[in-house]
Amino acid sequence: MALDNPSVTAPGTSVTFINVFEITAEHLDAFVARWEERAALMSAKPGFLDSRLHRARSSENRFQLVNVAHWESQEAWEAATADTLFRERTEAARDDATTPITSSAGLYDVAVEFRAVTSPPDDRTDTTGTA
């Protein structure tokens, strides 16, 4: 996968892999079971950091499943996804007519980040111990 966005982080830095899945409700459980097998393969690869498969709370959501995985680098992700067994299982899932699914995947860098704001101490509280 080529880096064609000039504003992204330099090669060799961590990346986020995001894959969204359109799938019908009746096929979710079977797909998740097979996804876990593929994720287990990836979790043993060098450079793998973590992965979570998110399930929509509403059946009306277009994307019923969203995978978010973190890798130490694009190079590590590329090496891991080149694994023959992983490729075979991914192609089998994609070609399985009993579980129709559409997916869209890509590597991402953080564009903007926010964290919870910690409340400052209450100015009315005497912290000097003199009150």
UniProtKB/TrEMBL annotation:
Spans traversing the lipid bilayer: none
Keyword Glycosyltransferase in the entry? The reply is no
This protein's species is: Streptomyces kanasensis
Q: Name one GO molecular function term.
A: monooxygenase activity
Query: Per the database record, which ranges form the ABM domain?
Result: 15-105
What keywords is this UniProt entry annotated with? Monooxygenase, Oxidoreductase
Domain of life from the UniProt record = Bacteria
Q: What is this protein called?
A: Monooxygenase
| Gene3D superfamilies per UniProt | 3.30.70.100
Q: Name one Pfam family in it.
A: ABM
Claim: Oxidoreductase is one of the keywords in the record: yes
